[in-house]
Amino acid sequence: MQFSRLTSGPWKRPAAPAPAAAPSRPRFWEGQDVLARWTDGLLYLGTIKKVDASRQVCLVQFEDNSQFLVLWKDIKPAAVPGEEICCACYLESVSPENQLVRCEKCGHTYHQECHLPKVLDVSSDGAGVLGAWMCRQCVFAVATKRGGALKKGPYAKAMLSMKLVLPYQLKALEWDPAHLTNRQQCYCYCGGPGEWNLKMLQCCSCAQWFHEACTQCLSKPLLYGDRFYVFECCVCTGGPESVRRLPLRWVDVAHLILYHLSICCKKKYFDFEREILPFASENWDNLLLGELSDTPKRDQYSQLLSALSSHKDRWEQLL
């Protein structure tokens, strides 16, 4: 028996943001090795093949030889050795209250007020550049993980403190009517790109979408398209995130399994006994089924089959 793949409905990648004034020196160039943030919230090593200054995008070739256009805002180049300039505003001027701080990991320098959150408790090394400090980008690079970010240790603590402030103006984002995508391609605490149906959680207070990899509240990895959570981000709680699993019906379980398989396998039909049932069995704990989790294994077959068979109109509407 086979069941059709589910789709999330029409989705179109939003247009790039309007170009801003470029810095006086070249920011990116062909052949430059960079880190690029992808739609899963993680950074990947790549090499710039082309630069389009008019649209503020670069064609980046990644280690698997794939090539994609990446917005400038999502590209992190290496620091230039010896350069004493803020990588956010590209200015050198400092004041006693707004000095340059250097990230001990990547070597980039920021004005204390240009970095978000503002750098407050540091001591000068006498050269106007302050040490023993890691920037937001590097903290996220270390702490973000597939399945959820680090929950314990110094990097987890540093990440939590930085997540209390977003690196962009949330109210300035231009959303589609369904509030699924924005024109600036700016999501999450990291400010990177995202796809709402691919392992992201929507905050119940501010309605922004957050990558699984950047959240620190999940007990199990997300399935693709899993929206059966009530989630509130750090900005809205003023502290750690909160998350609560919603009760699931068997038709919801069938929906999650079919949708996840459709994304992973990139095909339209699935065999119940050879694909759907084995996936459910192997991922039983990750589904976080609540009261349904105690269902005897012999009954799981009949319950899933019944849900799939009796809600065919639901699957047809989503094709």
Automatic annotation (TrEMBL):
- Region Disordered, residue ranges: 1-24
**SMART domains, per this entry?**
PHD (SM00249), TUDOR (SM00333)
| GO function terms (MF aspect) | chromatin binding; DNA binding; zinc ion binding
Q: Which residues form a coiled coil?
A: none
Biological-process GO terms, alphabetical: negative regulation of gene expression, epigenetic
User: What does the UniProt keyword field contain?
Assistant: Metal-binding, Nucleus, Repeat, Zinc, Zinc-finger
The Low complexity compositionally biased stretches are: 14-23
Question: Can you cite an annotated GO cellular component?
Answer: nucleus
What range(s) does the PHD-type domain occupy?
83-141
Location in the cell: Nucleus
Q: What is this protein called?
A: PHD finger protein 1
